[in-house]
Specification:
Elements: E1 2-7, H1 11-22, E2 27-31, E3 42-46, E4 49-52, H2 66-69, E5 79-81, E6 86-88, E7 99-101, H3 105-116, H4 118-142, H5 148-155, H6 174-183, H7 186-193, H8 197-207, H9 220-224, E8 235-237, H10 242-254, E9 258-261, E10 265-271, E11 274-279, E12 284-292, H11 296-305, H12 310-319, E13 327-334, H13 345-348, E14 352-355, H14 359-370, E15 379-383, E16 398-405, H15 421-435, E17 443-449, H16 451-458, E18 495-497, H17 511-533
């Protein structure tokens, strides 16, 4: 009998597998795809181009310590800093200065002063001073099981400090003031600190990469997370996003773990001494522990196929909100980098290119998605990481990813994405061309991933790259439900959950995988002690 069967080979699942294998457990990872890594994987889409299937910029994982704990550099993982880490070009048709976010706070403030004025530059400096430490505490909370004591320890002693010139003195109401700031909207936070709409829109678009619009409660920390980028900016894994999961797979193998691909798990059957895992290929594996890294709704389907109480599962399914879908992406091979009017490509090409000059574009796109409509104007985030790592592109060419929010999974009036994906990709490229005239003529190949494509290829139901909505009621010890939080499944001992469906949610962090492994290892210690004493 295996100590652990791990379902799925996404980065969180592989992190879990590596930690339990390092602890001496026998482990097998089961992946339905022939490609390892799930949404953190890279394949050849066009001749000579290694193209990411999902994530591209690794914003969080380098803040967790996982890379060092698992010594992934020894297994080939190498990162290049994105510096500048973000860039907001001038609005089309204007001669305004760009906003360039560098690792250096002073250099960033100089750019903000040139584009937005001295007051916003001073405000941004103070914003980083206040929200940098706060965001570090958020990362600390992300790195532990989402229990009330863990959250209290992460945020204990924090003082309320609001916008420039309006700092509160310490008082018994500090706790309430801080909690209100964290539970506020990202838009309200931006309005409190800054004047210039372009700066607000850039930071709101950065924050919205977590999924929700910055008009929702609880999104203030998502904006505040930008302050942490000045201590360690987003990183680009050399060779593509999949270099992370390739290193994890190599680490797993070095510790004796196995990885089985191309065979989908079809059922989880609870046994007296553990679990039986059945696959489409006819395999039956017995394991004391199962760690499920697939979508939580997929895990519930596997439990139903294994005879778990359907009424209980249906009640959970009805309460888990996947949401209307988040977005789509267009992957491009080009003959050149984007040339933003009046801008230096050294400033614009290394990080996240935030093509949203006004938050109204974000509000309109999100409102349209709720109604099953396409956005009036696509909100685009461009990434041209071949400027940092030429190895991912064919000689003499570049590679770009254009991510756009919000695009609904279910289109209104019964329309199908198969009929609209190509035209929407055209609109996304046209938006890029507005900011960087002539860009469209440089495109030589493209690959379009609509929300429907994201679901079918990567198993992300509803096209939601965060699995389930990152709304306040589905975060921390409510993610995805109280009965399924703490990385456990109520009534299914020995089954553990990891991945974007669980705390701390989507994005490339690996924190869920490490915590799930720690919980599983901790639960197993009493039985291990009993076995040793009985010898």
């Amino acid at each position: 009998m295996l100590d652990a069967a791990v379902i799925g080979s996404g980065h969180n699942a592989l992190v879990s597998a590596c930690y339990v294998a390092r602890a001496g457990w026998s482990v097998e990872v089961l992946e339905r795809d022939t490609v390892v890594g799930g949404a953190v994987s890279t394949v050849e889409r066009f001749p000579g181009h290694q193209v990411d299937r999902g994530s591209s910029a690794h914003i969080m994982v380098r803040h967790t310590g996982i890379i060092e704990e698992l010594d992934l550099a020894r297994f080939g993982l190498r990162y290049i800093d994105c510096d500048p880490w973000a860039f907001a070009p001038p609005p089309p048709g204007t001669d305004a200065a760009p906003i360039v976010f560098r690792r250096s706070v002073a250099d960033t403030c100089a750019s903000i002063e040139a584009a937005c004025g001295a007051r916003d530059a001073d405000a941004y400096r103070r914003f980083v001073e206040v929200w940098g430490p706060r965001s570090a505490r958020v990362m600390r909370a992300f790195g532990a099981a989402p229990s009330a004591p863990n959250l209290a320890r992460a945020f204990w002693g924090m003082k309320p400090e609001r916008g420039p010139g309006r700092f509160a003195k310490s008082s018994p109401a500090d706790g309430s003031a801080v909690s209100r700031e964290f539970l506020g909207t990202g838009d309200a936070l931006l309005d409190e600190w800054f004047d210039d709409e372009r700066l607000k829109a850039a930071l709101a678009w950065f924050g919205a990469q977590s999924g929700p619009p910055m008009s929702e409660p609880g999104t203030a920390p998502m904006v505040g997370f930008s302050a942490l980028m000045h201590s360690l900016p987003p990183g680009r894994a050399v060779g593509g996003s999949g270099a992370l999961t390739a290193a994890l797979a190599a680490r797993l193998s070095a510790d004796g773990g196995r990885l089985h691909t191309g065979d989908e798990v079809t059922a989880l059957v609870r046994r007296a001494d553990g679990w039986t895992v059945r696959t489409a290929g006819g395999r039956e594996l017995n394991a004391r522990t199962v760690i499920a890294g697939c979508h939580v709704l997929t895990t519930l389907d596997l439990l139903e196929a294994g005879g778990h109480d359907r009424a209980v599962l249906d009640a959970w399914r009805r309460r888990i909100r996947v949401g209307p879908g988040i977005g789509m992406v267009v992957r491009l091979a080009t003959t050149d980098l984007p040339r933003y009017t009046g801008c230096d490509t050294a400033d614009s090409s290394t990080g996240l290119q935030l093509l949203v000059p006004d938050r109204r574009m974000l509000h309109a796109a999100h409102g349209s998605a709720l109604a099953g409509e396409l956005p009036p104007e696509p909100a685009v985030l461009a990434m041209s990481f071949s400027a940092l790592d030429p190895s991912i592109a064919a000689p003499g060419q570049h590679q770009l990813s254009l991510w756009s929010q919000w695009h609904p999974y279910r289109l209104s009036q019964g329309r199908e994405w198969a009929d609209h994906g190509a035209r929407e990709a055209d609109r996304i490229i046209e938006m890029m061309d507005r900011f960087a005239p002539g860009f469209a003529s440089t495109v030589v190949a493209r690959h379009v991933q609509t929300p429907a494509d994201i679901e079918s290829e990567l198993g992300m139901l509803g096209g939601n790259v965060m699995h389930v909505e990152m709304s306040l009621d589905q975060m921390f010890f409510w993610r995805p439900l109280p009965e399924l939080a703490q990385h456990r499944v109520l009534g299914a001992p020995g089954l553990y959950l990891t991945g974007a469906s669980t705390h701390p949610g989507g994005g490339v962090s690996g924190a869920s995988g490490r915590t799930a492994a720690q919980v599983a290892l901790g639960d197993a210690r009493p039985s291990l002690v009993r076995r040793l004493l009985s010898r």
